[in-house]
């Protein structure tokens, strides 16, 4: 008999978000993902052999773990008969894994799925240039010392300048724009000043710091002693990108990084490059009950939307419109809104776009504005500017944080949404479960 | 025909010819399969040797024979070595000499086939373990092919049993791989995995188990041409160069003496024979092997080592149920408490393949546990003992947690939290509610009773003591302590777990100190009193170290921790009364903040840098801890000091046996060797006692009990008054071991 009970987020856990090149610099996506997977399995007490699938979202999988989800599953002692797949949708990969899981469950193909979002940006590779690669290939084909000397003779020092995969990965090849530049376009179009962006960034840090101090993230975070930790190091317990002493003055001093000298986007009002992993258990309400679990929230609706890649930062507006329509709800019905802070200017642009009638009519095909994003409901515990944005993991964290915030506030609905490099947006609507 | 009259023969020996099957897979090739029906594992006992001899006899008369393969009954089993049971029983050197000579002759017949026939090739095709005699048979063949499987291991471990390879191994191995490598193999007695055995030339080829026979036959029939490693230069420069071999032998002798401290003659004798082998005729070399084995094998040290070997093999049977099936070791365990013991147990378990969850309320303790575990794995990886993916898996298998959630799927939980009854009962009680009903609740307590911890816990049949020793990874003993309601199944599962962790289990009763700590108590206390009485610390340490113990008593106290030792002594005193009355010196030292190794100073001053190789030195100011008004014990003779220290331990052992704390003297011996490092060459505490004899022991104890300082101090008489069982033995002439 098919289980048509509502889809729920049964449980979730994440590592702290660590600044790239820092605490998690020697970590590995397989190891980190397996850690949260094992912990979630242990805490929920489920038999991992009853999982229907393990799905992991990751934007930059390690070259030697192409299906990192399978590696994570096996390293988490999930029995080998449970299949696993890796999914990608750039910055929303952590949400894509959940959407994929839910679609499977809706289709009757699954009932209990472990969905993860993982990213270790510290380990993005440096790549040899094409010229250097050609010489290496010639070297490996060379026969005898003469051939090898001949191949060596073609090396030039300039060939050793590596291509930085991180930078290239954050650049959209279609418009030829790095992500920060798309935020600059929006900042100009929506007349967002440098100062407004800096203020928003400061608020993100202040809120994140408060949240950390009241233990708001304690429910979500699993302290982790990372691989390669120094001797005597302690486990990382908190997101370590939060700047406790951030000031407007310090932010103002930073030069614009993507468009000099007049840009509005600096490293201070952009999200941080970070490493982290998050595991979520998704299933139906009926199944959760059978397993003795108290779910965190119901999934009401979700949606993906495509838009102009050069203005990808508005993705949340497009996708939220679709998700809200599917749910039959309005923006004002949301008690909590998690909108990923890729760039302060980008978030501010989203706010202006959603409350603009003209934008609603011209771009969203509506009769009027989508609605107002109440700043008091938006990212109440800080966002990616303070916490960091491990690309493939963020989507999963937004869902987890939104669910917990709904419970905390005893609200009814939450919206979790983000922009996606390449010109997309993703959005989820969650509902608190009355106990 | 060889003369077998009077040689030991197993009781269930089959009829002649049953042990070896001769198969002819193709013309010109004979395959001899070692398949004795009376043994689950083939052993070179008299029937097998005779049948092999008879089979070779047939082959010698087969003029058309070109190739010979010798193999085991399957690719997972070749043969064990000599008949250890028979060896244990042999007491006459002349008989043992004949057994040794017999094996030599039979194996020599194999070697002769190749010598006397042009183009004849013999191949040993081995899958499974091939220790000792099995390896020597293989060496008599032209080539050795090994199956590449986890259970395949080959080597010459005879020196570990107090003898040396006597079936041609000392002659053939150095000729095959050179003197230095042969010395390494024989003196260390290691069993090599296929990759290593191939690397240094002990074997000539490795292949998959499925291809073992096909490849062996191909080599025997000349389809695959293997070459012997050309070692001409090494042979001339080293093996046949008396100056070089003398130098190498001297180096090896130094290394052996450093390890054995001169207590074990077998490696030294093996060294001489092996070093001389390349310039000794086979006949003389074989004769030297016979003489040495006959003498060493009937001597007390070999007898003791063999007995210990058999005892530890027997200890493995403790995981068997009454119906002969084997209890399973847990695959998923929880460890509560990340102190020294807890994190040691957790790391060991994770290393050995168990999914392990470690709890502690202190985050720093968990960080240390993980860091140490990872460092240990990294070190193994650096030494190439682990592949990369194995190292990753070993790291994955240890998870830590600051709360007691997530233990629901553990099949066994062992607590190693603070030695406080309420704390232990609290954590185990909490877990008892979430674990499966048949999950085992184990305690690593050393000073509390299992019964007290188990009281009112749901499912008392699954509550048990699982007592590891410090340091967990090094100490081979685990005491399994039966609580009042502990079931046999629980005990068997614990034994299975201990074996899975590479430990030797001994089952003990739930009494104070269990077994090992109860025996150490009076021994260490008596040594402290000798120190208090003015015996120089250097002398005290040297005497006990010279007896064969791994370290002197004062160093042992420092290792254990003077606080722990003091606490343990108090517990023994409370439980057993006057005879365990503790000396004062420990509390005085503790008062001066000297805890031993952990605080940098106790009786010794310990190196500050971790990993430093500096040996600890005795503190220069120890005299002030020996009270001025005490007895003057420095005048005691060496034997008197040793007697006070060791006989106090023995007396307590006799009482423990009376109370059936362990099954018997054999188990007690095993526990003393693996739990406190009692010298193996002495066979264990009871075996050593038997060399004195009960009459002598009782006489000495009574004499000590009557000495002025002993009689004057509280508990002195009680400690040294001979136990009842000793007095009975002294009258009847019985010994600990029949």
Beta-strand level of the residues of chain A, as a percent range?
Answer: 15-25%
Average residue pLDDT of chain A: 95
Distance between the termini of chain B: 37 Å
| Largest beta sheet: strand ordering of chain B | 12-11-10-13-14-15-16-17
Which geometry of chain A do the CA atoms define? globular
Oligomerization status of the protein chains: heterodimer
Give the number of helices of chain B: 31
* Residue share in β-strands of chain B: 5-15%
The computed structural class of chain B is alpha/beta
| Biggest interface | A-B, 23 and 22 residues
The biggest sheet of chain B, with number of strands, parallel, antiparallel or mixed sense and barrel status, is: 8 strands, mixed
Q: Which structural category fits the helices and strands of chain A?
A: alpha+beta
Low-confidence stretches of chain A: none
Rg result of chain B:
28 Å
Give the fraction of residues assigned to helices of chain A: 25-40%
């Amino acid at each position: 008999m098919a289980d048509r009970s509502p889809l729920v987020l049964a449980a979730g856990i994440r590592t702290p978000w660590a600044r790239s090149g820092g605490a998690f610099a020697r970590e590995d996506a397989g190891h980190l993902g397996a850690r949260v997977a094992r912990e979630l399995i242990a805490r929920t007490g489920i038999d991992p052999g009853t999982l229907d699938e393990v799905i992991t979202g990751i934007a930059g999988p390690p070259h030697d773990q192409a299906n990192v989800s399978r590696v994570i599953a096996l390293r988490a002692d999930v029995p080998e008969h449970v299949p696993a797949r890796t999914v990608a949708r750039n910055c929303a990969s952590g949400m894509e894994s959940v959407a994929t899981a839910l679609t499977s469950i809706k289709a009757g193909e699954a009932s209990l799925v472990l969905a993860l979002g993982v990213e270790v940006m510290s380990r993005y590779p440096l790549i040899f240039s094409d010229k250097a690669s050609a010489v290496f290939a010639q070297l490996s084909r060379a026969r005898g010392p003469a051939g090898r000397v001949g191949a060596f003779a073609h090396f030039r020092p300039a060939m050793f300048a590596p291509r930085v995969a991180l930078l290239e990965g954050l650049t959209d090849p279609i418009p030829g724009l790095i992500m920060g530049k798309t935020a600059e376009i929006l900042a100009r179009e929506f007349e967002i000043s440098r100062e407004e962006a800096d203020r928003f960034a400061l608020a993100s840090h202040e809120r994140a710091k408060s949240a950390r101090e009241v233990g708001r993230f304690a429910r979500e975070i699993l302290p982790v002693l990372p691989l390669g930790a120094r001797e005597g190091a302690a486990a990382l317990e908190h997101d370590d990108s939060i700047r406790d002493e951030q000031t407007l003055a310090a932010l103002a001093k930073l030069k614009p990084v993507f468009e000099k000298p007049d840009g509005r986007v600096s490293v201070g009002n952009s999200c941080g490059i970070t490493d982290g992993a998050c595991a979520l258990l998704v299933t139906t309400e009926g199944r959760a009950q059978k397993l003795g679990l108290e779910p965190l929230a119901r999934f009401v609706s979700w949606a993906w939307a495509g838009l102009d890649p050069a203005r990808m930062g508005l993705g949340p507006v497009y996708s939220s419109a679709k998700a809200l329509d599917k749910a039959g709800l309005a923006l004002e019905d949301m008690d909590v809104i998690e909108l990923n802070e890729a760039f302060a200017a980008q978030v501010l642009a989203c706010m202006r776009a959603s409350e603009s009638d003209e934008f609603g009519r011209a771009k969203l095909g509506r009769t009027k504005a989508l609605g107002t994003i109440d700043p008091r409901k938006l990212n109440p515990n800080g966002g990616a500017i303070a916490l960091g944005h491990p690309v493939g993991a963020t989507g999963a964290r937004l869902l987890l944080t939104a669910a917990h915030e709904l419970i905390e506030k005893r609200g009814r609905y939450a919206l979790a949404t983000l922009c996606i490099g390449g010109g997309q947006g993703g959005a989820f609507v969650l509902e608190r479960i009355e106990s | 025909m060889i003369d077998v009259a009077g040689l030991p023969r197993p009781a269930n020996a089959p009829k002649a010819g049953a042990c070896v099957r001769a198969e002819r897979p193709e013309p010109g090739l004979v395959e001899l399969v070692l398949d004795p029906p009376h043994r689950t594992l083939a052993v070179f006992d008299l029937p097998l040797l005779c049948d092999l001899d008879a089979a070779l006899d047939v082959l010698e008369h087969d003029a058309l024979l070109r190739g010979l393969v010798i193999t085991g009954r399957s690719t997972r089993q070749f043969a064990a070595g000599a008949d250890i049971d028979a060896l244990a029983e042999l007491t006459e050197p002349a008989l043992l000499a004949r057994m040794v000579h017999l094996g030599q002759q039979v194996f020599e017949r194999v070697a002769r086939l190749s010598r006397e026939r042009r183009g004849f090739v013999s191949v040993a095709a081995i899958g499974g373990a091939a220790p000792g005699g099995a390896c020597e048979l293989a060496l008599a063949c032209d080539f050795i092919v090994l199956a590449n499987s986890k259970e395949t291991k080959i080597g010459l471990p005879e020196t570990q049993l107090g003898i040396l390879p006597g079936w041609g191994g000392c002659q053939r191995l150095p000729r095959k791989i050179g003197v230095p490598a042969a010395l390494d193999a024989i003196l260390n007695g290691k069993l090599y995995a296929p990759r290593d055995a191939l690397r240094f030339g002990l074997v000539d080829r490795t292949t998959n188990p499925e291809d073992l026979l096909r490849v062996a036959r191909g080599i025997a029939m000349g389809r695959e041409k293997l070459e012997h490693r050309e070692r001409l230069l090494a042979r001339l420069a080293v093996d046949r160069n008396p100056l070089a071999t003398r130098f190498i032998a001297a180096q090896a002798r130094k290394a052996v003496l450093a390890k054995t401290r001169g207590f074990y003659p077998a490696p030294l004798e093996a060294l001489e024979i092996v070093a001389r082998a390349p310039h000794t005729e086979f006949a003389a070399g074989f004769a030297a092997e016979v003489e040495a084995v006959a003498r060493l094998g009937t001597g007390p040290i070999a007898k003791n080592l063999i007995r210990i070997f058999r005892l530890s093999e027997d200890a493995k049977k403790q995981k068997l149920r009454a119906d002969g099936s084997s209890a399973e070791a847990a695959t998923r365990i929880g460890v509560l408490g990340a102190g020294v013991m807890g994190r040691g147990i957790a790391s060991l378990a994770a290393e050995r393949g168990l999914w392990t969850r470690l709890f502690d309320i202190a985050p720093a303790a968990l960080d240390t546990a993980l860091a140490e575990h990872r460092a240990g794995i990294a070190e193994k990886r650096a030494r190439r003992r682990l592949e990369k993916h194995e190292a990753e898996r070993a790291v994955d298998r240890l998870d830590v947690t600051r709360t007691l959630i997530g233990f629901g799927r553990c099949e066994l939980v062992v607590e190693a939290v603070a030695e406080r009854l309420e704390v232990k009962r609290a954590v185990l009680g909490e877990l008892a509610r979430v674990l499966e009903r048949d999950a085992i609740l184990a305690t690593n307590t050393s000073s509390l009773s299992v019964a007290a911890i188990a009281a009112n816990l749901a499912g008392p049949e699954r509550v048990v003591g699982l007592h590891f020793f410090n340091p967990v990874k090094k100490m081979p003993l685990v005491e399994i302590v039966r609580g009042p309601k502990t079931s046999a199944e629980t005990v068997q599962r614990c034994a299975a777990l201990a074996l899975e962790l590479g430990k030797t289990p001994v089952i003990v009763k739930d009494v104070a100190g269990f077994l090992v700590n109860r025996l150490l108590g009076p021994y260490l206390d008596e040594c402290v009193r000798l120190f208090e009485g003015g015996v120089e610390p250097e002398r005290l340490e040297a005497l006990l170290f010279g007896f064969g113990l791994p370290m002197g008593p004062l160093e042992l106290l420092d290792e254990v921790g003077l606080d722990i030792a003091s606490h343990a002594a108090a517990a023994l005193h409370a439980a057993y009364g006057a005879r365990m009355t503790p000396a004062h010196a420990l509390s005085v030292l503790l008062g001066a903040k000297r805890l031993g190794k952990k605080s940098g100073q106790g009786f010794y001053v310990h190196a500050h840098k971790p990993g430093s190789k500096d040996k600890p030195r005795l503190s220069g100011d120890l005299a002030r801890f020996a009270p001025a008004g005490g007895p003057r014990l420095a005048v005691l003779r060496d034997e008197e000091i040793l007697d006070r220290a060791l006989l106090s331990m023995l007396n307590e052992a006799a009482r423990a046996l009376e109370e059936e704390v362990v099954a018997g003297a054999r188990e007690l011996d095993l526990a003393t060797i693996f739990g406190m490092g009692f010298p193996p060459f002495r066979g264990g505490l009871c075996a050593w006692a038997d060399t004195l004899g009960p009459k002598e022991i009782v006489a000495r104890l009574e004499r000590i009990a009557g000495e002025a300082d002993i009689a004057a101090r509280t508990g002195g008489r009680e400690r040294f008054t001979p136990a009842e069982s000793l007095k009975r033995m002294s009258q009847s002439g019985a010994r600990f071991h029949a």
